[in-house]
Specification:
single chain; alpha/beta; Rossmann fold; 2 domains; six-stranded parallel beta sheet; 13% strand; elongated
Length: 416
C-alpha cells in the first residue's frame, strides 16, 4: 500500500480588519470557510474595541475575535500590545494587515515579534495604500496585491521587489446559475448598481448622466441602485433633476441574499468607478450572469472583463460611451444571453472564491516556511508613528479635482 500523504499543519492567520459592509470584510467572509477546508484558520481581529460593535449587524459575527482595547483611541501603543499579546497567546502563525486602512494596524507591522510572520494585503489602487505599504515594507514577509495593476504599481513606482509581491484577485461565490431568456425584449432592460454612494470611491455621481444618455439613445431601462454613503442625497437629487425618478429605485444596504436575488433578476451591472483595484461587487454580479458595463481600468477591470465577450468597457470618465454600451445591450437581448454565460464562465475559470482561497493558502504556507529576512521588531516602549503614516496635504484636495486627476491619469496610463 502507498503511504498516505502527511496531513498539512493547521495554520492560524489573523486578519486585522473592521467588520463592515465594504469589500475588505466581504473578502474575509468569502474566503474564510474555503481556507478552513485547506487547513488555514482565518480569523478577523477588529482594530476597535468590542463595544464599538454592540447592537450592530456584525456583533457576534462568525470568525471575529472582538477584543477590549484601551478606551483612549489615541493610545495606540497599548492597543498594539493587546493585539500582539492576543495573537501570541492564541498561537497565531501570521497576521495579515491592510496598509492605509487605519494607523493602528498599519503601524503594528513594525512591532510584530518574530514569532509571527506579517503580511500585507493591498486592496486599494491608490497612493493612500501604497505609501503606507512602503513605510512598513521591511517588516513584511509577503505582500498580496489584488490585481496586476496593484502589483505593478508597488514594484515599479514604490520599490517593492517582485519576489515579495503575489498577485491574487478577489473571488466570487458561485451559486446556481439563473437562466436568462433572449425573448425578454418585451420588458425594460434591468440595470443594477451595488456599492457605496461615494463619488470619490465609486463615481456614483456619473450614474444619472449615464442613465439619461442611455434613455436618450433609445434604451428602455430601469436601474436599481443599492447602498449608502456620503453622496447618496446628491445622487437622488440629480436623478430627480433629470426627470428619471420613474426609472430608478434606490435602496439602502441589503442582506447578501437579497443582493444575490437582485443580481439574478438583473441584466447588466454598472461600475462607474474611475479607479478600482479589484471590484468585489462586479465579480459577484458576473458570477450571477449579470453583464458588467464598466470603465476600462488598466491591468485591473480589463483583466477581469473581456471587452465584447464577457462585458463592455468604456474609456474612464466617458459617460457617453458608457451609455452607448448600455444601449447596445438593451437592443440586443440575444447578445446579452450569450455574454451572460461568458461572464459566468469567466468567474468559474479564473475568479472564483475557491481559487482565491487556494492561492492565499499557498501564499501563507510559502511565507511561513521561507527564511525570515525581517529586521528585529521595534520596541513598543519606543512607539512612534512614521511621517508616511500621518495625514498629508493631499487629504485636503477637493474631491472634484481628485476625480478629474484620476480620470486623466488613467486615460494616459499614469499611476498614483
Amino acid at each position: 500500500m502507498r503511504p498516505c500523504a502527511p496531513a498539512l499543519k493547521i495554520m492560524k492567520i489573523a486578519y486585522l480588519c473592521e467588520p463592515q459592509a465594504g469589500g475588505t470584510f466581504t473578502f474575509f467572509r468569502r474566503v474564510r470557510p474555503r481556507l478552513a477546508a485547506l487547513g488555514v484558520e482565518f480569523r478577523c481581529l477588529p482594530p476597535y474595541s468590542a463595544e464599538t460593535f454592540a447592537g450592530s449587524p456584525f456583533e457576534g459575527a462568525e470568525g471575529v475575535d472582538f477584543l477590549t482595547l484601551p478606551s483612549d483611541p489615541s493610545d495606540l501603543s497599548k492597543a498594539s500590545a493587546v493585539l500582539i499579546q492576543h495573537m501570541v497567546s492564541e498561537n497565531y502563525d501570521a497576521v495579515l494587515i491592510l496598509p492605509g486602512c487605519d494607523i493602528l494596524t498599519t503601524n503594528l507591522a513594525r512591532y510584530v515579534p518574530r514569532i509571527l510572520r506579517c503580511a500585507a494585503r493591498v486592496s486599494l489602487m491608490a497612493r493612500g495604500a501604497y505609501v503606507p505599504a512602503r513605510a512598513i515594507a521591511e517588516h513584511l514577509s509577503a505582500v498580496f496585491a489584488v490585481s496586476h495593476r496593484v502589483a505593478y504599481d508597488l514594484e515599479k513606482s514604490y520599490g517593492f521587489s517582485a519576489g515579495l509581491v503575489r498577485t491574487i484577485y478577489n473571488g466570487a461565490v458561485l451559486r446556481p446559475f439563473p437562466s436568462r431568456e433572449s425573448g425578454a425584449a418585451r420588458r425594460p432592460f434591468r440595470l443594477v448598481y451595488t456599492g457605496r454612494f461615494s463619488d470619490l470611491d465609486k463615481g456614483v455621481l456619473m450614474l444619472p448622466a449615464i442613465l439619461r444618455k442611455a434613455v436618450a439613445g433609445g434604451a428602455d431601462v430601469v436601474l436599481t441602485a443599492v447602498g449608502s454613503g456620503p453622496d447618496e442625497k446628491r445622487v437622488r437629487e440629480e436623478f430627480r433633476r433629470l426627470g428619471l425618478e420613474s426609472r430608478v429605485v434606490m435602496k439602502a444596504n441589503l442582506p447578501l441574499h437579497e443582493v444575490d436575488n437582485l443580481l439574478d433578476e438583473s441584466d447588466a451591472f454598472l461600475l462607474p468607478s474611475r479607479l478600482e483595484a479589484c471590484p468585489n461587487a462586479m465579480l459577484q454580479a458576473m458570477a450571477a450572469g449579470c453583464v458588467p458595463v464598466a470603465f476600462r481600468i488598466r491591468d485591473s477591470v480589463d483583466r477581469i472583463v473581456e471587452d465584447g465577450v464577457s462585458g463592455l468597457l468604456a474609456p474612464v470618465g466617458d459617460t457617453a460611451a458608457f451609455a452607448e454600451a448600455i444601449v447596445r445591450l438593451a437592443k440586443d437581448r440575444a447578445w446579452v444571453v450569450r455574454m451572460s454565460a461568458s461572464a459566468r464562465r469567466r468567474i468559474e475559470e479564473h475568479f472564483s472564491a475557491e481559487r482565491t482561497a487556494q492561492l492565499y493558502a499557498e501564499g501563507f504556507r510559502a511565507m511561513v516556511e521561507a527564511p525570515d529576512r525581517r529586521p528585529p521588531a521595534l520596541r513598543l516602549e519606543d512607539y512612534r508613528i512614521p511621517r508616511a503614516l500621518q495625514p498629508t496635504w493631499r487629504t485636503r484636495i477637493p474631491v472634484p479635482i481628485k476625480n478629474v486627476l484620476r480620470k486623466w491619469m488613467e486615460r494616459f496610463g499614469l499611476t498614483a
